[in-house]
Amino acid sequence: MFIAKSLDRFGQYCTLMWQSLSIPEKWREFFKRYLDEMYKLGIDSIPLILIVSLFIGSLCTILIKLNINNPLLPRYAVGLTTREIILLEFSSSILCLILSGKIGSNIASEIGTMRVTEQIDALDIMGINSASFLLLPKMAGLITIMPFMVIICMATSLFGGYLICVITGIVSVDTYLYGIQTMFIEWYVWFALIKSLCFAYLISSIAGFYGYTVQGGSVEVGKASTDAVVMSNIMILVVDVILTKLLLQ
Predict the structure, then answer these.
(1) What is the 3-class SS of 60-92, one letter each residue?
(2) Which residues constitute the domain of residue 194?
(3) What tens digit of pLDDT does each residue of 140-168 get?
């Protein structure tokens, strides 16, 4: 029963994605909504990214210093390990898990409210492809802006580690800076950006699906918003494992 229901929901998701990826009827309106969504979903999230990244970078540096306290290890290992953690996981996977709570719930609740108030039905009656009109600008906007948010997260996290070194002196600043430059692998940055594109699609499409297919009233909209965040997080973790295996093998 559970498998049949899951397959049915997956089929509905694929059908909705096929409808939403159609060519926009009015490009001017599409680009207007596309820019609005980039600002609403991306630019508005930058303060959250800065705060979280700053403290995570600081915590990574402190914890790594406490756990790598072996005279056989070079001092610059603190900066090197902090950089690898940030590039490989935090700046893409963990950041997207955090943002899915903000962005995913926003998308699901907005579209869900439009569904229960029959605004989507009105669009369908007017002959407008409501799936493309509502979902495509959100997906395109988030996919476009997410790599820039990841780059901001990388820079802010590394700066957080630098700042904690300046304030506390747990590692000398020169040693930390040397560590984050030592044995740098450029592919790790591209790896994080590729993952962020996939995660941005998952967050926007899954949240849009749960909002678009909600039935009932305000209580169901809240439940759909929660389900969208949970499912987005699960899929991010699953895809993270797959991409890590494929791209870092």
Answers:
(1) HHHHHHHHCCCCCCCCCHHHHHHHHHHHHHHHH
(2) 25-247
(3) 999 999 999 999 999 999 999 999 999 88
